[in-house]
């Protein structure tokens, strides 16, 4: 839709969301009550316009059509885990015939077998809570990865994993962060947040750290100079209001410590786990989650649509709902696939570029912290 037609549509007197359009244009912060009103509106096109307006007005003109991706490699050192999250299909017990544990050498060997390892820019390291892989294991792993692949940024360990390691070692989380940063840890992934609502956490992940501790740990990382991501795992039985409260908690933390790079609304899957599939999100709900995230998070630079979770086609549509990042190559993904996503395990550089171009955007390869590596204009393959 042409810009003039978009403005005519959103500002017409009968449009209940028109006042929010003007508020976003003027840079005013959207409140919780307003976000709830927007979320419950049935005019999806108008919601998309609000989100895209928020993205455009907060983005420098020369990069407004950029959509980012990263050449990354997922590493999951074990699937053994002590936690009992009802939505997890990845976890195995230590005696399961399907359990696995990777040594440091195993991980290095796995990466060395990847033909494109020389152009990797990110390792995404998340794992199970396993007492045989404590602080010394991850310190040795990060040192080894930096030794063999010094060009690759390590984004590793959720706040939940860091808390577990700290308790395992009997030391503060702050000390764990210092040791791992010295070993090569560069930033934190956003996992483990799930839904912050205590009501939901008591139903699906009662033994996980509470929202306040998750936020505190990310705040500590920010104060140490590390950046991080944040997520929302929707489809656990939470209400739209609880999703909004979750996003607002991220906004509040960002006001304090300012280290979140991107927010990632995720979509739950239900194979091989104990969450009721009746909670599954529709495509419309997924798009609303992206949109309301962009509208509310006026202090977080990027909103990511993780194509592994919602598929390539809906990821393309999300680029008109405030999203400007689709993650990356991934190479191998185990956690969402164990729960039933039927997306590919990986996408090539060419496939990512084509996906973004077909959505009318400019593909941009970035590193973990959003330094631009390459802009793929219309003449770049």
Task: Record the SSE blueprint.
Blueprint: H1 3-11, H2 18-25, H3 32-40, H4 44-57, E1 66-70, E2 72-75, H5 104-112, E3 122-125, H6 135-148, E4 153-156, H7 159-169, H8 173-183, E5 185-188, H9 198-204, H10 211-223, E6 227-234, H11 240-257, E7 260-267, H12 283-296, E8 302-303, H13 307-310, H14 312-318, E9 325-328, H15 335-338, H16 349-358, E10 362-366, E11 372-375
Parallel strand pairs: 1-9, 1-10, 2-3, 3-4, 4-5, 5-6, 6-7, 7-8
Antiparallel strand pairs: 10-11
Helix pairs in contact: 2-4, 3-11, 4-12, 5-6, 6-8, 7-8, 7-10, 10-11, 11-12
Describe this structure in words.
- With 381 residues, the chain is α/β, with parallel strands linked by helices.
- It has helices at 3-11, 18-25, 32-40, 44-57, 104-112, 135-148, 159-169, 173-183, 198-204, 211-223, 240-257, 283-296, 307-310, 312-318, 335-338, 349-358, and strands spanning 66-70, 72-75, 122-125, 153-156, 185-188, 227-234, 260-267, 302-303, 325-328, 362-366, 372-375.
- The strands form 2 sheets. Strands 2-3-4-5-6-7-8 form a 7-stranded parallel β-sheet. A 4-stranded mixed β-sheet has the order 9-1-10-11, with helices on one face.
- A hairpin with a 5-residue loop joins β10 and β11.
- α6 packs parallel to α8 and α7 (159-169) crosses α8.
- The protein is globular, with a radius of gyration of 20 Å.
- Mean pLDDT is 92; it is low at 333-345.
